[in-house]
Write a structure and sequence with these properties.
1 helix, 4-stranded antiparallel beta sheet, mainly beta, about 400 residues
């Protein structure tokens, strides 16, 4: 081995070798540091547990009364209806539509004259049409985005985030579905007759405007069957006749409502079942929820499906149930309120009629039930658990449950 590759052993200078006292001191310092870190970990864990405890306790909290902490007069727009849209509220009646914030401060308004206005909203677009008339107005959060004139009388509308709108039109003994862009140009049209398809009951368009879902009733051999059809307005649909990419018949069943929850999730609601479809191009049935009794009402948000069913229990004529999109039940509560409307809003089930409202959390806590001092038009949950917006014919009240 070459001498250049030989390295001498390193030796420690005797004066740098720690004494026994120094070693003991270093050991105490290390123990102190470890103990300090352990104490910090324990304190942080205790804080997390304490926060979790108070959060769970807050979630379980119930209320028996309320106080009005802010009210705003709803001047003008007599006999109007209201709906949440884009973080604010759309108010509409026969004379026009107005977009206002929660203090009733006007953001924009659009006058019109309609005999029977009807409204449909998506996350980013809204459409108001004159039922039985020929006019449609399209809006976003900034105001008017388009106008559509139809030749035939309007029966139903459904709008997408892409500012496209599907319109069910009456043409004598048959119906037509026309699909328009915001400039009023017809993208696609379809004829529906009792002789070749059946009676159209419900329809919806996907948020991206590429898929159209239709439920129509077919009478065959004395039985009432429902056909759920999907039409693809994108590139995939070009390969199919009439763009019909999916069709399924449900025998002896009526499906009076359908909806898209997002671009790839849609639901068909039957009289005793709900069928969940997945797929943004060619939807396929992924789950079915069935009930022994008839469905009285349906409600939903982006990730849940809710149902009101009849109930045999004395004093609670209704049963409210909520499912996730895999068809698993996550909420079931007996309901005594004689409700007229029900909704899912910020993880809460809200039921109300003209004089009373009731609130349940999805964890099964009955947060509140009681009478309100004015006629209730709508109940809107806020980002604070105990605070709600109550819309009446003349006021927009912010209340705090107590």
């Amino acid at each position: 081995m070459a001498e250049d590759n030989i390295r001498p052993f390193r030796t420690r200078d005797a004066k740098n070798v720690p004494t026994e006292e120094e070693r003991a001191l270093h050991k105490k310092i290390r123990r102190h540091r470890l103990g300090g870190r352990a104490a910090i970990v324990v304190l942080l864990l205790a804080a997390v547990i304490l926060i979790a405890y108070f959060y769970m306790d807050y979630q379980r909290k119930t209320y028996s009364n309320y106080s009005i902490i802010e009210w705003n007069e709803l001047s003008g727009m007599e006999n109007s209806n209201s709906v949440s849209f884009g973080g604010n509220i759309l108010r509409y009646n026969k004379d026009g539509v107005a977009y206002v914030d929660y203090t009733n401060a006007q953001i924009w308004n659009q006058p019109y004259e309609m005999g029977s206005p009807m409204l449909d909203v998506s996350d980013q677009a809204a459409a108001v049409a004159d039922k039985g008339g020929n006019k449609i107005y399209l809006f976003d959060e900034k105001g008017l985005t388009g106008e559509i004139d139809t030749v035939l009388p309007i029966q139903k509308i459904t709008v997408s985030d892409a500012d496209t709108v599907a319109v069910l039109l009456k043409d004598g003994s048959v119906s037509r579905v026309n699909y328009y862009n915001k400039s009023g140009e017809v993208i696609s049209e379809m004829k529906i007759g009792m002789d070749n398809m059946g009676y159209p009951m419900a329809m919806d368009v996907s948020p991206d405007g590429k898929m159209f879902m239709l439920s129509f009733l077919s009478v065959s051999g004395g039985s009432l069957d429902t056909v759920i059809s999907y039409y693809n307005f994108g590139n995939v649909g070009q390969e199919y006749k009439d763009r019909l990419v999916k069709s399924k018949t449900y025998e002896d069943s009526v499906f009076p409502e359908v909806e898209f929850l997002d671009d790839s999730t849609s639901v068909a609601y039957g009289d005793t079942m709900a069928c969940i479809y997945k797929g943004s191009q060619i939807p396929e049935e992924s789950a079915t929820i069935t009930f022994a009794q008839e469905i009285q009402s349906v409600f939903s948000d982006a990730t849940h499906l809710g149902f009101i069913l009849s109930n045999d229990k004395e004093g609670t004529p209704y049963l409210a149930e909520v499912y996730n999109l895999s068809g698993k039940k996550i909420f079931s509560e007996d309901v005594s309120l004689a409700y007229t409307q029900v909704k899912l809003d910020r993880e809460k089930v809200i039921l109300f009629n003209d004089t009373e409202f009731s609130v349940y959390s999805l964890s099964g806590i009955h947060k509140f039930e009681g009478e309100y001092e004015s006629t209730i038009k709508d109940v809107i949950s806020t980002n604070k658990q105990s605070r709600y917006i109550i819309i009446t014919p003349t006021e927009m009240d912010k209340i705090k449950l107590e």
